[in-house]
Amino acid sequence: MPDLSPRGRLIRDAIIYTPIFVLCAAVLLLMVVGVIDRAIVGMVLLAIVTFLFGYQSVQTLRDLRERPRQFEGAVARRWTKRDGFVVKSHYVAVNKAIFRIPIDAYMDVKTGDSVRIEAYPHTGLVLRCERTGRSEPEAPAPKPEAESRATPASGRMRTLRTARLSPSARDRGEGKTDGSPRPEKPS
Question: What is the distance, to the nearest Å, from the Cα of residue 102 to the centroid of all Cα atoms in its chain?
Answer without folding.
Answer: 14
